[in-house]
TrEMBL record, chain A:
Residue ranges annotated for the Calcineurin-like phosphoesterase domain, each copy included: 39-256
Coiled coil: none
Listed InterPro entries: 5'-Nucleotdase_CS, 5_nucleotidase/apyrase, Calcineurin-like_PHP, Metallo-depent_PP-like, TAT_signal
Top-level lineage group: Bacteria
Record GO biological process: nucleotide catabolic process
SUPFAM superfamilies: Metallo-dependent phosphatases
Protein name, per record: Metallophosphatase
Sorted UniProt keywords: Hydrolase, Nucleotide-binding, Signal
Pfam families named in the record: Metallophos
Similarity field: Belongs to the 5'-nucleotidase family.
Signal peptide residue numbers: 1-29
Single GO molecular function: nucleotide binding
From TrEMBL, chain B:
Signal peptide span: 1-18
Any one GO CC term of the record: outer membrane-bounded periplasmic space
Keywords: Signal
UniProt GO BP: nucleotide catabolic process
Annotated protein name in UniProt: 5'-Nucleotidase C-terminal domain-containing protein
Domain of life of the native organism: Bacteria
GO MF, one annotated term: hydrolase activity
PROSITE patterns: PROKAR_LIPOPROTEIN
The 5'-Nucleotidase C-terminal domain, residue ranges: 69-211
InterPro entries: 5'-Nucleotdase_C, 5'-Nucleotdase_C_sf, 5_nucleotidase/apyrase
């Protein structure tokens, strides 16, 4: 009861952020029509092999993080919420001796155990080369989504997919991944013949696919591009401003601790939210969504590249 | 109630009209209870996950505590010529020569590239990780004589030693009387000098910009592994871990 009140209050408080205020009002006018579907998104980024909490001893993050604790926290949320998506934005590898000794095996096994639904690839996930990454993939019981790396000329051809659609009580959530340019960041021999493709073009393609044939109600981008750069370099904020039809960008790479998700207005006037939760599993990100059955999405309907259709 | 009925009727009409189609859902975000939930000390562990971690933890701990060798005296780091930088630069040169089957006349390691000294007494894998936490690879650069001159001028400004060479640093930061393998450095030599170095420094790290345009030859050996292997080799040969400041840089 209390939680329901809280959700209702926060719905009123944040409706404007979605850029769909008018539609939210329309939905509020028919509250008893059908119970909205709830979706809880939990997410991490840049966990950097931080299996155990940071060691005690006065460092900035001493005693924080730890995957056994995160697992318990996630289990608590799952016990309370009907629909949970658990996502990660890359750089799972590198940072503690666990990676040096086991090559990422334990990281993937624990993420699988926690029930991660998907991750994307960060630059450090290439630190043991394509072979090192490929060797660990059997330990990951979740897909890696990456739309802008072409692995077709590498031994990892066919191991990844650009996107995945998750269906929760009839609600279709499309998730795709974007990675940062590897040249200059990762040793040439570690990414081999992997081709880097334009993230903006790929994101537009993904939105068209997910909003179109895949008939998604929500589109999430797992990004390892980075939150914000003051130069020309593409970041999550620039991506959100250039690509219509994104609802949420879960970011990484810049290890940014965000107090709250940032809404960025897209070309269609619809605001995408960006969130990033630091690094090393110090925090677990959480966003709760409600899906009200309703009319066509505002803004999106008018964008030619993002046709909105009913789903079958 | 009435509204509810109307909505249902409308929805049914839509379904009837469009066959299998349904209306799309619209997402509305809530930021509750927090969008960034700390995983702090008060959060209990999942015991099953903790149990999964334990054997890995025990292996890492055992490995990190594993003694590779013994240092009678601590190998310290400092600017200028230091025992630690001499130790690492020398083993870089030796390992690169072994891997590439050729003589490597020079080797470079900066003070900043080494993150901690080796303590007196037992030297553990953990000590080597603290010394070299980075995944740097040992590489070889084939540097023309002009670049080697730049290297020594760079070295002279910070009185840094170069493994395989001796020189005199002038007060205004120039390198004089450079000797490589005991022979005078020939600034007009056409044949490049092979330099063992980390891929980080080879790529222009620590302001060694003059190396940036030289394509490195790979050894495939991590610098940390090279250090650990060398200490093990010393131990297997019954030798202690030692290095001295031996006057590779003379200050004029």
């Amino acid at each position: 009861m209390q939680r329901r009140d809280f959700l209702r209050n926060s719905l009123l408080g944040t409706a404007g952020l979605t850029g769909l205020g008018a539609l939210a009002n329309a939905a509020a006018a028919a509250p008893a029509a059908k119970a909205p579907v709830k979706l809880t998104i939990l997410h991490t980024n840049d966990m950097h092999s931080r299996i155990e909490p940071f060691p005690e001893g006065g460092g900035q993050w001493a005693g924080l993080g730890g995957m056994a604790r995160r697992a318990a926290l996630i289990a608590d949320v799952r016990a309370q919420e009907p629909n949970v998506l658990l996502l990660d934005s890359g750089d799972i590898f590198q940072g503690t001796p666990y990676f040096n000794f086991f090559g990422g095996e334990l990281e993937y096994k624990l993420m699988t155990r926690m029930g991660y639904d998907a991750s994307t690839l960060g630059n450090h996930d290439f630190d043991n080369g394509l072979d090192g990454l490929g060797r660990q993939l059997p330990n990951a019981g979740f897909p890696f989504l990456i739309a802008n790396y072409d692995f077709s000329k590498t031994p990892l051809a066919g191991k990844f997919q650009p996107y995945k659609v998750f269906v929760k009580q009839g609600v279709r959530v499309g998730v795709f991944g974007l990675g940062i340019e590897l040249a200059g960041l990762v040793g040439d021999k570690n990414f081999g013949q992997t081709l880097y493709l334009d993230p903006v073009a790929k994101a537009k393609e993904m939105v068209a696919q997910l909003r179109g044939p895949e008939k998604c109600d929500m589109v999430i981008c797992l990004s390892h591009l980075g939150y914000k750069y003051d130069n020309e370099k593409l970041d999550d904020r620039k991506l959100a401003a250039q690509v219509a039809g994104l609802d949420l960008i879960l970011g990484g790479h810049t290890h940014t601790f965000m107090d709250a998700p940032e809404p960025i207005q897209g070309p269609d006037g619809h605001a995408a939210l960006i969130n990033q939760v630091g690094w090393s599993g110090i925090n677990l990100g959480r966003l709760d969504y409600e899906f009200a059955p309703g009319a066509k999405r505002g803004g999106l309907a008018s964008a030619a590249v993002v046709p909105v259709r009913g789903a079958c | 109630m009435l509204r509810s009925f109307r909505f249902t009727a409308a929805a049914l009409a839509l379904v009837a009209a469009a066959g299998c189609q349904r209306g799309p859902y619209r997402p509305t975000a809530h930021f509750a209870p927090a969008t960034s939930q700390p995983v702090g000390k008060t959060q209990a562990e999942d015991p099953a996950v903790a149990a999964l971690i334990r054997p890995y933890h025990d292996k890492v701990t055992a490995e990190m505590q594993g003694v590779l060798g013994t240092a009678p005296v601590a190998l310290t780091k400092k600017t200028g010529e230091s025992p630690l930088a001499n130790f690492v630069a020398d083993l870089q040169r030796q390992r690169a020569a072994e891997v590439l089957h050729e003589a490597i006349p020079l080797s470079v390691m900066t003070n900043g590239g080494l993150r901690a000294g080796l303590p007196a007494g037992p030297v553990t894998m953990g000590n080597v990780f603290e010394l070299m936490p980075f995944e740097n690879e040992l590489v070889v650069l084939d540097a023309p004589a002009a670049t080697v001159q730049q290297l020594f001028d760079f070295a002279a400004r910070v009185k840094m030693a170069v493994s395989g060479a001796t020189y005199t640093a002038t007060p205004d930061g120039h390198a004089l009387d450079i000797r490589i393998g005991g022979l005078p450095f020939d600034a007009a030599q056409a044949k490049p000098y092979a330099i063992a170095i980390s891929d980080y420094l080879a790529g222009g790290g620590d302001n060694m910009v003059f190396f940036k345009n030289i394509a490195p030859r790979h050894t495939g050996v991590l610098l940390r592994s090279a250090i650990a292997d060398h200490i093990r080799d010393l131990t297997n040969a019954g030798q202690p871990v030692t290095a001295q400041v031996e006057g590779r840089v003379k200050v004029n």
